[in-house]
Amino acid sequence: MRGSSNLRRWLRGDGRMSSPAPVVILAEDQRQARLVRAYMRARHPNLHQEAIHDAPMANGRGSGAQWVANQYETEVRAHLIRRAKLPDQRRSEKWLIVVIDADAGSVQDRINELRKRVTESKDERVRKCSVEEVNIARLIPKWSIETWILNLNGETVDEETRYKPQNRPWDDLIPSAGAELHEWARSGQDPPDQCTPSLKLSIGELRRLTA
Amino acid sequence: MLKRLYIDNFRCFVNFEYKPERKQLLLGANGSGKSSLLEVVRLLKEFIRGGENPFTQSTRTRWQDRPFQVFEIEALLDDKTYEYRLEIRYSPESKLPSISVETLTASGTPVFELSKGEIRFFPDEGARSPVLRWETTESALHLAQFSNSSVRRFVEWLDSVYCFSVDVYPGQMDEVADTESRQPDYELDNLAGWYLHLIQENPEGNANLLASLKEGLNGFISLRFKTEEGGMRKLLVDSESPAKGRVAYTISELSDGQRKLMALYMILHFLLVKGLTVFIDEPDNFISLREIQPWLLQAEAAADDSKGQLILISHHPEILNQWSQEYGLRFFREENGHVRTEKFKTDYEGVLQPSEVVARGWENE
Asked: Do B112 and B85 touch, CB atoms closer than 8 A?
């Protein structure tokens, strides 16, 4: 029935193409988005592909991180509009997952930048919202998502090395990385010792998402 | 102008009312009934024109067991409201359905009436005709157009309501005109024959068409017919490029997109400019992104200037972003049941583009 589609329904596997997508990923590029999708598939095996929608990506429009930072306020606004239309008990069904590299700064610098985008919004609803409380997860790899992909595939990595330029079968490594991310992010257990600091912080963000 | 269409018990339409605007974008998921609406218009045209009855048992709504279908058309023509009603009855004993009611009123006054096996004509001059017994499986309305000018006006108008779903697959469009075609086909596969008719009937429209194609098609010079053996005329596209010089291509040598663009500009310059009602199913198919907006802007201007009616079916982001906010009508089906419509609505104005809202399935949520 129109209007009753929600994440739970998608999770039961009876969502349809025409049903509203409950999860939006705002990412710099396809690889980041694919890791999130792989994680979501591991977390919710019945989830349809169509339940997750990728927001427009930079696709050559300058720096991917800059693009995500610029789009962040727009996506938070859209997310809040959507939540506001739902009764309280259904608001937790809508998720916004943001992926943005920290690049030269720290993960905290990036969180501060995103926070600034929200506090400087023209929209009062956005300014007043606490993103931690509205099912928004900010996933921030230190240099790039490739560090996490290797880390989740059992390789020893550090957050100073740039792994992205390495010739690795990145796409093949993503499904297992997503499944492992789900294992590490399961509530009630600590991520393993080899988990990089930036990934550890992001796991905290993923654990906040509730359906 | 088409003001209203009512359909009951036809495919996915049950007690369905459609009130088109002058410009409208029909959007919605696949299978939501948009193209079926065009099919109804086409079948009613064919039926009222006096062709074989296209309505059969299999066109009834699957999950209904009512043995009759109802169709109504309301049109505003020369400040007069015309209301046409058709009831088709199916019986298990007969393969062919019977027409139980077919009526037309003009400004509320009956101008044609077929009901309960009796037919009545209302000639312009003279007294009412006698009531005649009349059992039929086909439309009888066209019989009345010779004696009643209102019937004639309505029938002629309906004949000038066009529905298109242009099929540009290679070999689909005839490149040879064996005869002139006064009417374009639904899929425009008689493009050459129709164009042969149009260049004689409307040279001004042809000049405008050629001007548009010069702008829209790279290297385009002109269209012309070449007489083949046996007197058949082949439509050729003269083109010029620095590398190849002047070359004449047949229609089938053009790309799908080039054929589609030609068809769209023909519809624009020969039909839309005349203030007609035109439905086009997915005009954007095969057209490159850069080519959509110029055509759309010209088509809209032509419909505005001529007070015509342009109804598009599209999923294309470019068309959605241009038209959905103002002219969007969303088709949907609840639990795969009847077709319903509602004005396109987005709560994300100024935040997300309409096409992005649709891509997320968030419209009218």
From this structure: no
Residue of A nearest to B360 (CA): A21
Low-confidence ranges of chain B (pLDDT < 70): 127-128, 336
> Which of B351, B356, B363, B364 would you mutate first to test chain A, the one with the most A CBs within 10 A?
B351
Measured distance CA(B106)–CA(B124) in Å, rounded: 12
Shortest CA distance from A25: residue in chain B: B360
DSSP state of B130: P
Residue of A nearest to B335 (CA): A1
DSSP B278-334: EEEE-TTTT--HHHHHHHHHHHHHHHHHHT-EEEEE---HHHHHHHHHHHEEEEEEG
Alpha helices, DSSP H, located in chain B: 34-48, 141-144, 149-159, 191-201, 203-216, 256-270, 289-306, 317-327, 354-360
Reported as a single tens digit per residue, the pLDDT across A122-155 is 999 999 999 889 999 999 999 999 999 999 999 9
How big is the CA angle at B288 (ends B283 and B289), to the nearest 5 degrees? 90
Is residue B340 exposed (0-12), middle (13-18) or buried (19+ Cβ within 10 Å)? Answer: middle
Q: Which helix (H) or strand (E) holds B71?
A: strand B68-77
Q: Which residues of B touch chain A, with CB atoms under 8 Å apart?
A: 28-29, 32, 332, 334-335, 347-348, 351-352, 356, 359-362, 364-365
Is residue A151 packed enough to be buried (19+ CB in 10 Å), middle (13-18) or exposed (0-12)? buried
- Residue in A3, A18, A81 closest to B347 by CB: A81
How many Å separate Cα A207 from the centre of its chain? 11
End-to-end CA distance of chain A: 19
**CA–CA min distance B100, chain A (Å):** 36
pTM of the full structure: 0.89
Q: Which of B17, B19, B356 is nearest to A53 (CA)?
A: B356
Burial of B318 (0-12, 13-18, 19+ CB in 10 A): middle
Over the stretch B237-248, which tens digit does the pLDDT of each residue have? 999 988 889 999
A2 touches chain B (CB under 8 A): yes
